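User: Sequence in, structure out. Go.
Assistant: Echoing your sequence, followed by the structure tokens.
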Amino acid sequence: MKKENNSSKPEFLFSKRNYIIMLVGLVVIALGFILMAGGGSEDPNVFNQEIYNWQRIRLAPTLVIIGLGIEIYAILATPKK
């Protein structure tokens, strides 16, 4: 009785390229959330107009959506063999 050697190298679902693209997407999403944070007022009775600046209203949500698009691309990209 001969034993078969099935100790082959495990295959990952994604390639290294996919993981790098995913990491870039996560960095873009994190940057969007960092830019969205803040803008509060020290005194709750005083309204701070800075909460409506273009960085929080336009740039940060756009970065989050772009990051999500990068993540979808990284998942759907076929790994090079």
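User: And one key feature?
Assistant: The chain has a mean pLDDT of 86.
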